[in-house]
Structure formats: C-alpha cells, structure tokens
Amino acid sequence: MHTPTPEQTAAAEAFPTGSHLVIQAGAGTGKTTTLAMLAHTARRQRRTGRYLAFNRAVARHAARAFPAEVTCGTAHALAYTAVGRHYQARLNAPRQAGWRTGAALGIGEGMCLRIGPRKVNNKALSYTVLRTVTRFCQSADEEIAHHHVPPLRGAESEPLRTQLAGLVLPYARRAWADLHHPDHGVVRFEHDHYLKMWALSAPSSRPTSFSWTRHRTPTRSSSRSSPRSAPTPSWSWSGTPRRPSTAGAAPAT
Asked: Is omega for the bond preceding 218 within 30 degrees of 0, making it cis?
C-alpha cells in the first residue's frame, strides 16, 4: 500500500475544507497519483467532480486513474460544446498570408509608417494586429488593450510602444469583432478563439462538488502576457469547490 508523502498528506488535509487548492510540481513527481487519491476520497463521500486537462491524451490518462464520479475532459471540449460548435463553418478554413487578412481589415497594401527608427509596412502591421488578438486570447483579460500589442524590434521603448498600440488596437478590435460572426469573416477562426469567447461568458458547469484544472505553469490564462519560456518545466492543478447550480450549464465531455 502506498504511503502518502508529506506533500500528499497536506493536500489530503486541505481538500475537504472546500477552499481553493493549488498543487504545483515538476513532471513525474506524483501529482496525478495525488489527485487520484483525493478523487477516491471524494467518491467515498459521494461527491462528484470534473477534471480539465490541456489536451486529450492527459484527459484520457486521468480517466483511467480516477473513479467514474470524476468526469475528465479538456477546456476546449467544454468550450466547443457551449460555443465553438456555432462556428463550425469557420473552423479549418484555409490559411492565407497575414497581409491579405490585414487588407480585408482595412490595412492598405501601400501603407508604410515610421515609429521612431522603425518603418512599419502593411505586412508588419498586419502581423502585429493578428499577434495582438492571439495574445489577448491567451490572457485572462476581458478586453484587448495596450499590453497585448507585441513589441517590434526598433520600437521597444514605452513611448514608441504606445504609438504602435494606437495604430494597432483599432484593427485588432476590428479583427476580434470579425471573429464573432459564426458563418463568415475575414480572420481565420482558430480553436483558441472560441475558447476565449467561452471564458468571457463566465461559464458554469454541470453541478459538481469540485473541479480540477491541469495547466502549464505559468498558465496562459493567469497572466496578462505569457513569458517566452518557463525556467523549469512544471505543472499545476487548481482545485475549485463547487456548489450545485443549473444556470448556464454546459455539457461535459
């Protein structure tokens, strides 16, 4: 019989309190084993729960370790059921050059502006606009803002970034508005777009007594800008106590 480590014991003691719980550690340190231990404890207490992973392989692995009372799936699957299915006509559209998308958003092919020492042509501006939308979708923010605009080489100083943001944000907001049309649009619709729309809708899941989310650390949705790389590979789970609710229920997957 497995003897819990001090860390696992601490998690087991914190779990029944109903408070938020975060478990963070490197790969292969026993996090899934810990959650399986907590899940079986919940089963004996006749509690149900949901486990959200960042990909299907992790969710399938968890489903083999957890009791049936814990529904395992991905955030994208939940988001697709609630929101993404309405955008099926736009998913998997053929890729096109960013400057073509920019042109459809109103960025003229001959546009060329100077921001400090940097010349910004239509291709650079189009790329920056689309990256801004991507960075917004990877944040926890509710609106596209200055800090989502990526820096351009040669225009890294704050005054120049502010000038760049003033140029980029109107087009980025136009691109985000375009993505909300279910049947047609000029911006290529990606899976992270409906995930962001779902997150902004303040979703509430089927009645469960607890919910676990597995994510990389730092999580994309926990900070305004994502670092290029984490210093050490690590993972974390956030556990959230749930009270029964039927409002806005999204089917589990």
From this structure: yes
